[in-house]
Amino acid sequence: MENLSSGIRMLGYCDDWHASPGSTIAFKVSCEGVGSYRARIGRVICADLDPLGPGYRVDPVESVRPDPIKGRFQPLYPGSYARIDDPDRLSREQVFTVSALVWPTLPGRRDQTILSHRDDAAAHGWQLGLDADGALELEIGGCGKVSSGVPLLRRRWYLVTAYVDFDAGTAGVGQVALRAIPGVPRVASASMALDGNPAAAADGVPFLIAATSNGATGACRFFDGKIERPTVFGNVLEIDNVDAWFRSVGDSAAPARIRASWDFSRQMTSDRIEDVSGNGIHGRTINLPTRAMTGHNWDSSDLSWKCAPEQYGAIHFHSDDIYDCGWETDFTWNVPHDCRCGFYAAILETDDGDLDYIPFFVRPRAGERTADVAVIVCTATYLAYANTHVKVDMVGSEVMSESVNQISPYELHLHEHRDLGHSTYDHHLDGSGVCYSSSLRPMLTMRPGPYTFNYINDTHLLAWLEHIDQPYDIITDEDIHARGVDAISGYRAIITLSHPEYTSTKMWDAIDGYQQNGGRHLYLGGNGFYWRVGFHDSFPGILECRKCATGVRAWEGEPGEDHLLFTGEPGGLWRTCGRAPQSLVGVGYSSTMFARSTYYRRTAASHDPKFAFIFEGVEPEEVIGNFGRRGGGAAGIEIDRWDPDLGSPPNSVVLASSENVGIDGILSCEEYPIATRGTDGSQHGFVRADMVYFETPAGGAVFSVGSITWITSLSHDGFDNNVARITGNVLRRFLKPHPESE
């Protein structure tokens, strides 16, 4: 946090943003130039600072403590690597060879480590990596360096080796490209005499893969790219003989010659790396590098790592990976036993006006209910977008939104401090897509300000519920993923918010099961149930999303790397997995329209007396939602359409559709197989938002509006408008014990 042009001097996060009455939340804060601050807890009613909206409102709950809290700086340590904490059997070798298969993604950018047993601060031990030019280099403390002199090419597989013979006083390196390229040396090697006094590895220094040990920060000189099958031999191996190397690490290897060999295709879903030499020198990964990555031998015969794990033996390490910031706790809050459910935040303030806002959620204890309606918090979506750099990094972001980007101080701070991690809409430094996002870090896209997408938009619904005095419980996506349909069964109605875009299989099945067993669901958003994602059973707060070759995506994964590591399932769109959103909620994503929003007009079918309860207080020809805080209308940003061919139930009815979308609406790419003209809202019938209603077994029903901006239109004219009226009509009917009998 050294560069302070953003003005942000204080940031924090909590250990678990899911709280319940009786639980304790730990808050971790880092300050730069802040001596002390006060902390209080507030219940969030609306986080939107827009004075023309519902009005920013955070109701005070209590102060954390009467005295100020001392500020302190807590550093961030991004960068993924693997660590072997018991390297003693490797550190005493006088003669050894180390090797690995590598696929570098940033050669020539800076010094990088492939394998090391070195204390970087004390310059003890050795490290094998790439020098600043991208050539293979071995450095030995007290003896100097030797380089192959030939830079490795980006995104090409190489066998890299280095040997050290302290007895003979020699060392060398060698690299072999697995595929020859005309005009480029396939083999390069060099050796040196070990002059001077080689410094042995310091006691307690771990053996690292993809980084070098540094006592102050844990690790440094991170590698960007894939590494496969790192191996340590107890002899000098031919450094330019690929066939001999493969024979040595294969089934025919003489076990006595191999000291350690880590097969990354084993235990891929864990943070464990397994030594298959028989010597038991196992390790673990740090900061969750990406596993289930295609290796040097991937032949495209299988697209799933579960079907051919032996072809997925690579780990993709990134110098900017981060999972858990690991900050120490600065204060805690014991959630009162009578605490109401809702969105909450810890508000941090200084006398000088510095402010931070740490969001979390209070929901009932498992198995309990305090209201008849549950608001489903889109925490998967919040994670997917957390700390996005799209406004700054994405080429054409202003063209897409057809407006000048507003950059908040938080977004500027994110741009300056990439060590806070990325969203699943971003690229790593090496250009690969980000498929993990964690809540164990400050999430600056969930603070009040001009970044209104998702979290702030969703609080408009809370403001409306408070306005009509409707009690509600909060249930998060992760609650549903963990507990299945039990997390929501028993509620007369559930409400999904403005943008429930990211959904795990367990979440989908739970919502479907709830609906099929008599539950009533108000889907008040757009672009919902779009991407399939995974959560990890052993690593809390982490979401995985792998973007594939279709859908509106900021990046596209490598061929063969579409399947989720956490679950083994195909990633990508639910639509391409055979479950289009229409089959769950009647409508599915069709179009973006960021420049402006528009309105709905009722269909002839909506005038059937069966649907009179929905439009009570609305005139038959009344335009619906030609107002709102996002683009001036209730149909906008991202919109969904009805389509029986994609699964909209046979008994589903389109009650209203958007009009006047015009050229501002752009058809989503999965909606057409061939790129042609005529894919905007003025020419293509698929570019529309549909309001849909259908009944499900046992008295259940679904009401869907198919638009992100529906919720942000609720507050218009003091909540006295037809969007609020229709929503209230449906909610009241859904909360009745037996609405189907009326």
Summary, kept brief:
With 742 residues, the chain is mainly beta. The chain is 12% helix and 32% strand.
Please describe what this structure looks like.
It is a single chain. The chain has 742 residues and is mainly beta. The protein has twelve helices and 43 strands. The radius of gyration is 28 Å and the shape is globular.
Q: Please tell me what the overall shape is.
A: globular
Rg:
28 Å
**Cα distance spanning the termini:** 61 Å
Mean pLDDT, rounded to whole units? 92
Query: What summary fits the major beta sheet?
Result: 16 strands, antiparallel
Q: Which regions contain 5 or more consecutive residues with pLDDT less than 50?
A: none
Q: How many strand units?
A: 43
Q: Count helical runs.
A: 12
Helix content: 10-25%
Please identify the structural class as seen in this structure. mainly beta
What portion of the residues fall into strands of 2 or more residues?
A: 25-35%
